[in-house]
Amino acid sequence: MAIGIDPTVDFAFKRLLGNPEHTAITVHFLNAVFGGTPQITQVEILNPIFDQETPDDKLAILDVKATDDQGRWFNIEMQTTTHAGLRQWLAFYAASLYVGQMRSGDLYNALRPAISICVIDALLFPSVPDLHLDFRMRNCRHGLVLTDDIQIHFLELPKYNPEMHSVADATPLEKWAYFFRFASQLTPEEIGGQLADLEFSEAAGVLEMIAQSPHEREMYEARLKFERDQEWRLSAARNEGIEQGIERGIERGEYTGQIRLLQRLLGLPESQSGELAAFGIDQLRNLFTQLQTQWGDRR
After folding, report:
1. Could you state, in order of their start, the residue ranges of all structural domains in the chain?
2. CA distance 268 to 195
3. pTM of the model
4. What does the alpha-carbon distance between residue 253 and residue 284 come to, in Å, rounded to a whole number?
5. Which of 18, 107, 139, 181 could bond to 14 as cystine, CB 3.0-4.6 Å?
6. 140-147 contacts: CB < 8 A, separation 24 or more?
7. d(CA 74, CA 164)
8. 165: left (phi over 0), alpha (psi -120 to 50) or beta
9. What are the C-alpha distances in Å from 79 to residues 17, 231, 270, 287, 294?
10. What is the pLDDT of residues 252-274, one digit of tens each?
């Protein structure tokens, strides 16, 4: 029987990659992202999932924060859709990891690289075919490197098509894309047969544990429902923004829709269309930024 647990649901995602009892899975994933150079042999999970007790705690932080034996700091998260500010969101968290290392009396050259990794089940950069996109601080004209200390990586799952790229010949990162996309439809035996590395069998075991444990399954289903509801709200807000954009310009409409969505998600009084219509574009931008920061703090 197929496992039936989708590893792109962030509860399952964190059970896989943010679990102190299964750090071999995290090590394997990170080595796949970075090509195993330098080889990572250990990670420490900084925010394990075990502090989430009830399925009602829907706004618990479900990204993964970790350090490796090279001293690098990681923020790893799963996104099932694109949304306004996602790129800035990831840059903010990478910068936060970087700045957060500093203590009184520390020297700047003691800072270690801070890296955001976003596995996304959507296309954020559809104009390029690359499954993995790696962003660092470079001079565009001369290719000079300022620093590699702040990095943002995207793994866009829809770009991996097993019909065009055989799983048997896939790179480690392509195998992870295959796992994230299709593991829920496979049995543990099929996963072990197609993805020979032991870490994938271990990952299948984690998904099985979620499926078989009533408490874990309840947590998973609650989070899945929350994600679907959130996706519906985002879709409704985009539609609302488009409708308003026809009358007042697309940019104003997008800001208005996103502002009202964030107010709903934060439990704040929702601004009426007439109120926001009186705002200038700079006021809308500032309000959107404030609300986006509050939403980020809630995560």
Report:
1. 10-212, 220-298
2. 47
3. 0.77
4. 10
5. 18
6. none
7. 31
8. beta
9. 14, 11, 25, 24, 19
10. 677 777 787 778 777 788 887 67
